[in-house]
Amino acid sequence: MINTDSTLHIEKVTSTRVGEVDFDNLVFGKTFTDHMFECEYKNGAWQRPTIKPYGPMLVYPGMKVFHYGQAVFEGMKAYKDENDDVFLFRPEQNLERINKSSKRMAIPEFPKEIFLEALNELVRLDKDWIQKGDGNSLYIRPFAIATEVGVSASPSKEYKFMILLSPVQAYYKGFVKVLIAEKYSRSADGGVGAAKAAGNYGAQFYPTSLAQEKGFQQIIWTDSNEHKYLEEAGTMNVFFRINDTLITAPTSDRILDGITRKSILDLAKHNGVNVDVRKLTVSELIAAAEDGSLKEIFGAGTAAVVSFISHFGFKDKIYELKEQSDSFAVMFKKQLNDIQYNISEDPFGWRKKVELF
Amino acid sequence: MINTDSTLHIEKVTSTRVGEVDFDNLVFGKTFTDHMFECEYKNGAWQRPTIKPYGPMLVYPGMKVFHYGQAVFEGMKAYKDENDDVFLFRPEQNLERINKSSKRMAIPEFPKEIFLEALNELVRLDKDWIQKGDGNSLYIRPFAIATEVGVSASPSKEYKFMILLSPVQAYYKGFVKVLIAEKYSRSADGGVGAAKAAGNYGAQFYPTSLAQEKGFQQIIWTDSNEHKYLEEAGTMNVFFRINDTLITAPTSDRILDGITRKSILDLAKHNGVNVDVRKLTVSELIAAAEDGSLKEIFGAGTAAVVSFISHFGFKDKIYELKEQSDSFAVMFKKQLNDIQYNISEDPFGWRKKVELF
Ligand SMILES: Cc1ncc(COP(=O)(O)O)c(C=O)c1O
Ligand SMILES: Cc1ncc(COP(=O)(O)O)c(C=O)c1O
Question: What are the N6-(pyridoxal phosphate)lysine sites (modified residues) in this protein (chains A, B) (predicted)?
Fold first, then answer.
């Protein structure tokens, strides 16, 4: 349901702020580019899609998103190569996923053509904000929020779909220590864990802060029923290498269908790596750590691409992972990077060039 | 952690909007009074508490509440008696609960004295918005939202605690049909179901809309593991009367500790009703419906007070409940109402008079 006026309206800044930015000291997600995208939904239709100067907006405190968390988001990136060409990575996957998330959260789906056009145009306008070089990229945050004013727990009739751009460096630096969840959980069967619903993330802050007090950066969530199966981390899917087999949990109601995850699964096949998509139990993991067959654990997600996990904690014991000379994580990270930054061929057709002129 | 300047600052409207309101045709939660309360949290402390004219606020689209649902709320009411005295119902319980919710959502707790003072002052200022008469009240919505700008999934360092007031009539009219959840779920063990976290509510909209398409108004949630135990409804705890015993689920990680629920449990004891706080299974319920021992089901929550449930659906079958001449629901609703509106004695000390002058 699109309104008749679906032509992208563009209102440019009069002068750019890009010169004021210290690109060597960016805090992830804190700096925003000159422009943002916004499209309102009301009277049963998406209204005129608009790119306009990044800035604050006037909202009422009774807006439903504040009270009922009716909100979804995405995370994606644009990369610049040595020739100043700019690329997106599987952008249609993010659109598909935000629409899946929206459906679960009773938010109207957003039209594909408008999304892709807005994305291209926005990145084009703010291309000078994208730095070249390893780890540098433009983080792209599409999101939708319930904007109807009303403090009764029912779906909003009005929404805003927006896209923000934020220049970033690598997300996690170095190795990550993770704690395996025994008490708290991330999502329920039949719940919204498979959606990038805003509330899933806020709900993790407290248990994650408890893990951080113990010296871990992240939690690896387990199923909420028995805390028996390894699921995923805060904003990453998780891979385990036991001997030479790469294992990751199947997606489900509770687990986000990560684009990095599915790309790594394809890369693994491409590289002839033995892949096993199955539920791995915590006790299998412990046994493999103890008998030395556990070689690697790594996280996979857009923000960090691949995160090397050096330690995991479970029930007051800490298990260390040795660096592997033939690391899968290193290999996948490089291969993904090379595709994303237009360094290598892209046999999968994942890279989408942004039309800059 | 309160800042030194914790004196309540008050900025009044120049003229009231109360004359413009059609109090006989209120939509729940859509009309707001002249004033609202706001207190910011930054630099590790709550800043100056302020009552000011209700109105919009300027916020950035990168604010964490939009992206990570880091938000909690409460729902309470003020009631006016025939002498124009105004009463709150167990307000300290709501403060305690929002602070419990906040803790689970990594939001700093709000100071009790400031909350109670602000509440009294706000209700006092807008007392003309409270209508007398059965079902009429002033709905009070305290809430806290994460206001730091930053699209990275970590707790906000800045918050707003606000209170909105909204004049309301009775919430649900008549009888309610409920559907027992078989597939979707509301919360997980170890999750945030026991908190009034914003995201819990948005997550129910889609499954509830599916139930509504089948002719039900609400879902009765069951446990996410087996869908075996009856838990609670969207914004109500649920009571079952089998023969003359009143049964309700124990509170847990997954179930909100409702103030109406606990008040009804006290009233039941006071009335000599046999109470059984235990997990009731769906199959027990069906059996009781079939052999006629199931007499009543009702919801209990601030918005609706007591909701009479006339039908429940399970697996394509609909079960009807006959009206009882000695209805527990009717009795509890009247007793609660009489306490809330200062019609009867209040042996429990639940009623708190608002200091109006
Ligand atoms: C819960 C969760 N798991 C996994 C991921 C990884 O998904 P993707 O690779 O698409 O970024 C994300 C998103 O960043 C996430 O939020
Ligand atoms: C999930 C849920 N259960 C039950 C209730 C009832 O709680 P109370 O009686 O305190 O309003 C509420 C709040 O309204 C709720 O949100």
Answer: 196
